[in-house]
Amino acid sequence: MSGDLPAPPRRVATAMLLAIRIVRVLLVVASVVLIFAATSLVLRGLPLPSWMKVSGPLTDGMMLTFASLGLLEVVALYCLLGLLGEVIATVRAGDPFQSRNADRVQAIGWWMVVIQGVDMAKTILALSGVSHEDMTSDKTISVTGLGAIVVVFILAWVFRIGARMREELDQVV
């Protein structure tokens, strides 16, 4: 029951895989920037670039907390995209309903939980009086993000059932 995708969807899958690789490289760059920012705070010998300056009652500890949360978010997104790329590769190969993909989609859900938790922590810090344009966009907790997490876990369940049905069909044929 498995087989290659027709050419147009295969090209879309290939383009998605390329885009994921590019974004993952950019996330590595973002990680280096966040580590630089945190290091400059700790060592105090390296000045922060002007675009990283913040306003408001921001202590070094709070800035280090924001940098750490940002780094955690970048790492989570990097891992999530790696898993998504592996799922897309199996779709491109025409063989998506595997138990490994169910595990991957479930892991994507858990990485989304981490990202949502980091967003909530940043929002709470932002509401405590810290102001910075890039730390949080609207200082509210995203209900949409929570809904997306539920959808991803349901999708993992669907993948698991699909993989089980496929295994049963393979045993019959």
TrEMBL record:
What is this protein's name?
DUF2975 domain-containing protein
Under the heading Pfam families, the entry gives: DUF2975 (PF11188)
Keyword annotations for this protein, in alphabetical order, are: Membrane, Transmembrane, Transmembrane helix
What is the species listed in this Swiss-Prot or TrEMBL entry?
A: Brytella acorum
The transmembrane residues are 21-43, 63-88, 108-128, 140-159
Species lineage: Bacteria, Pseudomonadati, Pseudomonadota, Alphaproteobacteria, Acetobacterales
Domain of life from the UniProt record: Bacteria
